[in-house]
Design brief:
single chain, Rossmann fold, 7-stranded mixed beta sheet, 16% strand, binds ligand MGD, binds iron/sulfur cluster, binds molybdenum atom
Length: 747
């Protein structure tokens, strides 16, 4: 493979050195524990190779020495007494009981390989499902494991796969690429690179990156840009720190994002402040879209969304009149049932304003490899690939990621149709506490499987309830690794400095198991060889050890790729869509029997769709807004992180608290007709009087394992159901109706 000319950063010191009697190793952070991005870190170890301190690497252009509390507290997580340290097994009939028995890695691998191979021979490889959680450092390895074994059923456990995948699938279907804000992250010189321009405006839509650092974006970049002069617009039901600094704050009703975007499109189109040249040359279906949004006047949209008309108009004008602007979009778009039309409406805002592949606008990530669609899809037998669960129902499953439908899979577990599932491999997911709606239904459906393997850092409610074998995985200072995946990327390494128990990295685990399931697909002697192969394949021009010394390595980047024929397989200018343009009216959706234009559907239940429920359930509930110290269901064991956020909370406006006779710090139930969860009240003016916001992912590691660490009482997903959008993507995780009332003493 050719050397693509990756750009390196100068380092003052070697990647290993000594300081005050401690060894310092340079590297980057990428899971476990969970995080999406991979800041540059300096890992400090003592004479026993124990991790004692983590600092930000000031030479790494990504974070320039900054770190958040989760990496600063990493030694408490890595060295925690409760870490899983050895493989464990338990008799199938003992599921739910704390009767684990330590076994060797050989016994674990032999048992799993024998089971999986028997299932493949007797029933077919599609009978084993492979599940992951959020995009930790895992998609490439888990897809390769699933596909090399022969199963097309690789999944992510949220209903409607409603994290990231709807945005990715929606963008690929309508533009042939995925679009991210340009904060100069693709350049080794960052803000000093002359090709980059400061975004005039950053619109944060359902995304709070100061806290979440999500999907490849380090939140401090927004603050950097604000200091240099970027203006902020936020779209959020909560007044976040960024909202308090914003030019415009659209405090919308949860789940009404598509209506708000269509209202802004209405303003921009009618006031003629879109980019005419870009629309004429590169967009398809402008007139149809204009007609569609005509009824979404600011006044009507105010009624739907609760955002004052003048704020809608002001935000639309500020965004459209900017020379370059970023749409910093987040999870709230995916966690709405009709996520694809919402994604389509919001992306039309940056498309018709010409913020496509422009400096300081929205850019298509030069993905080095593998992450987007997974690694190793070619290994799958084409006939068996057709058996992917949900593929016959949802054509969109082919865009971006080759996943099976979680909503169809739960039915398959329950009914044995179209075929009976036998086993599952779970890696990096604690779905009973986190991704899965309807906890009781989920648990019952999963109990039908004969054999379940979980790979994790800690014992979790999911593993306690369901696993027959548990494998202990590494946190990042315990392993070597390569970061080659998502977002605008650089080749980056993770360096091993310590060892805990018999833990193995996910990559080692999958390589060793892969060798037993399909040796031809895993020809590498060890992970070093595997990483070097990947680097060669990507054209990085270095093997793994060379990259360890030199990382990060930046992939060459160009703006306006669509003008140069760099986005289409045939090398023609334009976009990789049927019309060759950005499709505001989508040919693909139309051919798939879906509405080709964006639309808004009232969230159900909701104050407009089900007004009859308001008497019993008067509050609109949004869930899962991130906090600084916790990552989904993780970190509850880590003392300094738990201390900052010791209990699950629900945020409520002071006037609402008075109305319901509640006080700050009260223990309350948050409840709807389907279920309830325990919360501590936080009285705060950041939410309006009609809306409450609660966090997700709760369980108590300190509680009784045989009561599943209290997950049943604590899980907000008790209130949710498996109801995906029409395209199979999206689910209302961030909008419901509920009531909040005090927990009686003794309850
Ligand atoms: N109501 C509601 N529910 C939500 C959300 C919401 O906003 N509201 N958000 C959703 C979203 S966006 C997502 S992505 C999902 C996330 O859901 P999941 O990704 O399933 O998150 P967790 O439940 O934290 O499970 C992660 C597990 O992986 C383990 N782990 C961490 N790092 C590693 C590693 O490197 N290797 C291995 N083997 N294990 C590791 C952790 O210990 C933990 O037990 O949750 C979703 N759930
Ligand atoms: N510390 C920490 N960081 C994380 C995670 C974590 O658990 N903890 N999880 C990671 C994962 S997997 C993901 S997907 C990302 C998610 O990160 P983000 O995309 O930032 O998502 P959230 O924090 O869930 O929500 C962002 C904002 O949307 C608002 N919001 C709620 N409902 C709505 C709505 O209906 N419409 C709109 N427009 N806004 C709404 C919330 O109030 C919140 O301020 O974070 C990642 N980073
Ligand atoms: S955002 Fe925080 S947890 Fe993630 S890598 Fe950076 S410092 Fe670590
Ligand atoms: Mo996510």
């Amino acid at each position: 493979m050719e050397d693509k000319g990756f750009e390196l950063v100068a380092h003052e010191k070697p990647w290993h050195y000594e300081e005050d009697g401690l060894k310092v190793t340079r590297g980057s952070a990428w899971t476990g524990p969970g995080c999406h991005i991979g800041c540059g870190v300096l890992l400090y170890t003592d004479e026993n190779d124990k991790l004692v301190k983590v600092e930000g690497d000031p030479e790494n252009p990504f974070n320039e020495g900054r770190l958040c509390p989760r990496c600063l507290a990493l030694p408490e997580c890595t060295n925690h007494d409760d870490r899983l340290k050895y493989p464990l097994k338990r008799a199938r009939e003992d599921r739910g009981k704390n009767t684990w028995e330590r076994i060797s890695w050989d016994e674990a691998f032999d048992t799993i390989a024998t089971k999986f191979i028997d299932i493949r021979e007797e029933f077919g490889p599609e009978r084993v499902a492979f599940y992951q959680g959020t995009g930790r450092d895992i998609a490439a390895w888990i897809t390769r494991l699933a596909w090399s074994y022969g199963s097309p059923n690789y999944l992510f456990g949220m209903s409607g796969m409603s994290c990231y995948l709807p945005r990715v699938a929606g963008c690929f279907a309508t533009t042939g690429a995925f679009w991210l804000g340009d904060y100069s992250q693709q350049f080794a010189q960052r803000y000093d690179d002359a090709r980059w321009k400061l975004p005039e405006v950053i619109m944060l839509w359902g995304n709070n990156p100061i806290v979440s650092n999500s999907d490849g974006l380090y939140g401090h970049w927004i603050v950097d840009c604000m200091k240099m002069g970027s203006k902020i617009i936020t779209v959020d039901p909560r007044r976040t720190w960024l909202s308090s600094k914003a030019e415009h704050f659209c405090q919308l009703r949860p789940g009404t994002d598509a209506a708000l975007a269509m209202g802004m499109l209405n303003v921009i189109m009618n006031e003629d402040i879109y980019d005419h040249d870009f629309v004429d040359r590169w967009c398809y279906g402008f007139d149809e879209l204009k007609e569609r949004v005509a009824e979404f006047t600011p006044e009507k949209v105010e009624e739907i969304t609760w955002v004052p008309a003048e704020e809608i108009i002001g935000a639309a004008r500020t965004f459209a009149n900017a020379e370059n602007a970023i749409m910093q979009w987040g999870l709230a778009i995916d966690t709405t049932k009709e996520a694809l039309p919402a994604c389509q409406a919001i992306s039309a805002l940056f498309e018709i304003t010409g913020n496509i592949d422009n400096p300081g606008g929205m850019i298509a990530p030069p993905s080095i490899l593998y992450y987007a669609g997974g690694w190793g899809n070619e290994l799958l037998d084409p006939e068996i690939a057709k058996k992917r669960i949900g593929l016959d129902k949802y054509a969109l499953l082919n865009f971006g990621f080759q996943v099976a439908s979680t909503d169809e899979m739960i039915k398959t577990f329950e009914t044995g149709k179209p075929y009976e599932m036998k086993a599952a491999w779970l890696q990096t997911t604690n779905f009973l506490a986190c991704t899965a709606p309807d906890t009781e239904r989920t648990m019952a459906a999963w109990q039908k499987l004969d054999f379940i393997v979980v790979t994790d850092l800690f014992m979790t409610p999911t593993a306690m309830a369901l696993a027959d074998i548990v494998l202990p995985a590494c946190t990042y200072p315990e392993r070597d690794g390569l970061r080659v995946g998502d977002g605008v990327q650089r080749g980056e390494v993770i360096n091993k400095v310590t060892q805990i128990g018999e833990c193995k990295s996910d990559m080692e685990i999958n390589l060793e198991l892969g060798k037993r399931l399909n040796p031809d697909a895993w020809p590498w002697a060890d992970v070093d060889e595997m990483f070097s192969f990947i680097l060669e394949d990507a054209g990085v021009g270095m093997n793994f050890h060379e990259l360890q010394e030199n990382a990060p390595a930046y992939i060459p980047f160009e703006y306006r790729k669509y003008e140069k024929g760099l986005l289409r397989a045939d090398g023609q200018p334009g976009f990789d869509t049927p019309s060759g343009r950005i499709e505001l009216w989508s040919n693909f959706y139309n051919n798939a029997g879906l509405d080709p234009l964006p639309y808004f559907e009232e969230p159900t239940p909701g104050p407009t769709a089900t007004p009859e429920l308001l008497e019993e359930y008067p509050l609109v509930l949004t869930t899962g807004a991130r906090n600084f110290t916790l990552f989904h269901s993780e970190n509850r064991q880590v003392p300094h992180l738990r201390a900052v956020h010791p209990d699950p909370i629900v945020q409520m406006n002071p006037a609402t608290a008075v109305r319901f006779g509640l006080e700050d710090k009260d223990w309350v139930w948050v409840e709807n007709a389907r279920g309830r969860c325990k919360r501590r009240l936080e009285v705060t003016p950041i939410v309006n009087e009609m809306t409450v916001s609660t966090d997700h992912g709760w369980w108590y590691p300190e509680a009784d394992p045989e009561n599943l660490f209290d997950v049943r009482d604590l899980n907000v997903n008790n209130l949710f159901q498996y109801i995906p959008g029409k395209a199979g993507f999206g689910c209302n995780y961030k909008t419901l109706l509920c009531k909040v009332y005090k927990i009686e003493e003794g309850e």
